[in-house]
TrEMBL record:
Molecular function, one GO term: DNA (cytosine-5-)-methyltransferase activity
Reaction equations catalysed: a 2'-deoxycytidine in DNA + S-adenosyl-L-methionine = a 5-methyl-2'-deoxycytidine in DNA + S-adenosyl-L-homocysteine + H(+)
SUPFAM superfamilies: lambda repressor-like DNA-binding domains (SSF47413), S-adenosyl-L-methionine-dependent methyltransferases (SSF53335)
Protein name from the UniProt record: Cytosine-specific methyltransferase
Domain HTH cro/C1-type: 19-63
Known EC number: 2.1.1.37
Species name: Paenibacillus yanchengensis
Enzyme active site: C193
Length: 450
């Protein structure tokens, strides 16, 4: 049998139950368990179903349909049947935002926890999680230069160079390089989400094919780790009026995970950079049911470094340069200043049409100061809209300065062209932020003896 959509919705309205969260709470279960119970492949557990009809004050026959009834009747009414996405229109992503923190700076792993990372890039997240105490058993990455960087610095890591779409489609356990057979503790990755299409999302994985969230979801279902860590740009929270994040949360719940998220600023975690990222943590449902300690995000550090703290002794390295025309303009900008410090005519000529557009545009012709953290680094040090000029010299930051700002260790070398090195560093998760996230996850695993 399956549970009829209209019957449940009508019963909820009569009882003034407006959301899935409220119904789940009354049932004494989480939203993921409720979604499973309402899916068309669910074999009802008697106690839960009886509690459901008691709360909704309906007869059992009033909310179920026998799948063996006349096929014509089934065709006529099938549109009313519940799928796992019954409550698509009323999911509130902000109800998943967790504002609970704990100081985890001294946390050390009680045992060797393992890690599989996707979209590994130059290793920012992996290094930080390694420093926290996680043992990497596989890093998946497509970019050849980034893979060379990983292999050069961590020859003992298992670097799987290839398209994650193909790896996930074929099954990661079928990949010749993935030979690990034990339980996975942590799956991590920062999947790009720019290609999402959100109109009329109703069919789970079918709706996200062609996006890089899809293979991440596939690997999550294949590996079934205890915990997953997903990070992304802050803008994900409100992208497409929140539908993007809502969809991700629903699919994570369908996979059997309870999800929490928050926006973390790297500057709060010993990184000399204002870089805000959304961090999504998912914990497997069976672990939630037995946990003694609830997950908490890492408490911000007291140490708030500025550029003076990290760049004064930076090793010499190759770096990009400005053309003479740009240098003449930036020579007029004081430390901590931007285009507003330029003479009006020079500012108009330099900015072009942007001069008359709305918004602050304070990234244009921006020279940073020794006494402030860097603004968010981009994948190129010369982008006109997001200028990051050196505090004293009229030039972009060098590769090693870029790496310092991202809290990479000085002995971490980057492969590829100069532009590719900047790209690898700019795309990375700051190491110190990644370490703090890793320590918060290890803290959860430690305290629950997992």
């Amino acid at each position: 049998m399956i549970i009829a959509k209209e019957a449940v919705l009508n019963a909820m309205k009569k009882k003034n139950i407006s959301t899935q969260t409220e119904l789940a709470e009354r049932l004494g279960m989480n939203k993921s368990q409720l979604s499973q119970m309402l899916s068309d492949n669910f074999c009802p557990i008697k106690t839960n179903v009886m509690k459901l009809i008691e709360i909704l004050d309906v007869n059992l026959n009033g909310i179920i349909e026998n799948e063996h009834r006349n096929s014509m009747m089934a065709l006529e009414t099938q549109s009313s049947y519940l799928q796992v996405e019954l409550f698509d229109d009323i999911t509130d992503r902000f109800s998943y935002q967790l504002n609970a923190y704990e100081d985890v700076q001294g946390v050390q792993a009680k045992r060797s926890y393992n890690l599989v990372e996707t979209f590994a890039g130059a290793g920012g997240l992996s290094i930080g999680l390694e420093l926290a105490g996680l043992h990497t058993i596989a890093n998946i990455e497509l970019d050849k230069a980034a893979c060379s960087t990983l292999k050069l610095n961590r020859p003992h890591w298992n670097i799987i160079e290839g398209d994650i779409n193909e790896i996930a489609a074929n099954g990661i356990y079928n990949h010749p390089q993935f030979t690990f057979k034990g339980e996975i503790d942590v799956l991590s990755g920062g999947y790009p989400c720019q290609s999402f299409s959100y109109a009329g999302l109703r069919h789970g994985l079918e709706d996200v094919r062609g996006t890089l969230f899809h293979p991440f979801s596939q690997l999550l279902n294949q590996l079934k780790p205890k915990i997953f860590i997903a990070e992304n740009v802050k803008g994900l929270v409100n992208h497409d009026n929140g539908n993007t994040l809502d969809t991700m949360i629903k699919m994570f719940e369908q996979s059997g995970y309870q999800v929490v998220w928050n926006i973390l600023n790297a500057w709060d975690y010993s990184v000399a950079q204002k870089r805000e990222r959304i961090v999504i943590i998912g914990i497997r449902d069976d672990l939630i049911e037995q946990q003694q300690y609830e997950y908490k995000f890492p408490k911000p550090h007291e140490y708030k470094p500025v550029l003076r703290d990290i760049l004064m002794d930076s090793p010499e390295s190759e770096g990009s340069t400005y053309p003479e025309s740009k240098k003449k303009v930036l020579n007029l900008v004081p430390p901590g200043g931007c285009w507003v410090n330029l003479p009006e005519e020079i500012a108009k000529e330099y900015m072009g049409a942007s001069y008359h557009s709305g918004g602050g545009r304070r990234g244009m012709a921006r020279r940073l100061s020794w006494d402030e953290p860097s603004l968010t680094l981009t994948t190129s040090p010369q982008q006109k809209q997001t200028e990051r000029c050196h505090p004293e010299e009229t030039r972009p930051f060098t590769v090693r300065e870029y790496a310092r700002i991202q809290s990479f260790p000085d002995d971490w070398k980057f492969c590829g062209s100069l532009g590719n090195q900047y790209k690898q560093i700019g795309n990375a998760v700051p190491i110190n932020l990644a370490k703090a996230i890793g320590q918060s996850v290890i803290n959860y695993l430690n305290k629950n003896n997992l």
